[in-house]
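// run 5 | inverse folding | seed 20
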């Protein structure tokens, strides 16, 4: 896309970002750094989060946990939705009991329970994130299963009596746009809850780094960690989620 071909909305978005950074820099001039550091100091620390070994280990830890949690939650949520569809007697248990319970259970509750049940580390963080993400995936995939054309499934069964073949050749391809949607939702929510989980039960990660920075009034690191998460989410969306969505939307 050439410069002249860019839509006005993109130019407006860029202008708003520039104005926000300029206002930030102007406001930071009259405030101490522990209250509001300038954008240049935050940008330098943000670069360090991706280049300096002491900071990079925390960035990588958070990223790996988020990706692992999203994949595990997607597998569990999709599996529960398929199980409820395949075994109707379990639909009341999964949709009527388990789904509302997981959907309503407070996020901070999972974080506190993980801090009690597990030692600080990867397992406790992944547990919290998976417990919170599963209902998002379950609801989206279950809705996808309800939207699948039953007549098409009946036609598929008329060509093959093997349920596994119908599932693999017909149901899953029809379901993939909903799975891709679940992946997008879970990825966004995972980054939102990663810091909360790491604040309460981790010795590494961006959340732990922010907690340590808060104790020393290091507002530069706090803001840099927040913006690093925004950058990581944006990169994941552009490099992974958008290509996946385009591929299955084209089917």
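// decoded
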């Amino acid at each position: 896309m050439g410069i002249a071909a860019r839509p006005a909305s993109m130019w407006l978005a860029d202008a708003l970002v520039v104005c926000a950074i300029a206002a930030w820099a102007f406001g930071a001039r009259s405030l101490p750094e522990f209250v509001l550091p300038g954008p240049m100091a935050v940008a330098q620390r943000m670069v360090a989060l991706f280049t300096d070994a002491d900071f990079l280990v925390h960035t990588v830890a958070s990223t790996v946990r988020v990706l692992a949690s999203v994949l595990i939650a997607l597998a569990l949520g999709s599996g529960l939705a398929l199980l409820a569809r395949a075994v109707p007697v379990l639909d009341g248990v999964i949709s009527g009991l388990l789904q509302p319970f997981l959907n309503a259970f407070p996020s901070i509750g999972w974080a506190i329970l993980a801090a009690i049940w597990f030692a600080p580390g990867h397992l406790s963080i992944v547990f919290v994130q998976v417990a919170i993400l599963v209902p998002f995936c379950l609801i989206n995939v279950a809705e996808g299963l309800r939207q699948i054309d039953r007549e098409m499934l009946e036609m598929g069964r008329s060509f093959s009596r093997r349920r596994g073949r119908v599932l693999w050749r017909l149901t899953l391809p029809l379901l993939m746009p909903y799975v891709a949607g679940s992946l997008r939702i879970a990825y966004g929510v995972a980054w939102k809850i990663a810091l909360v989980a790491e604040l309460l039960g981790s010795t590494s990660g961006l959340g732990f780094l922010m907690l340590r920075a808060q104790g020393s009034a290091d507002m530069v690191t706090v803001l840099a960690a927040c913006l690093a998460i925004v950058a990581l989410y944006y990169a994941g969306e552009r490099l992974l989620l958008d290509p996946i969505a385009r591929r299955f939307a084209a089917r």
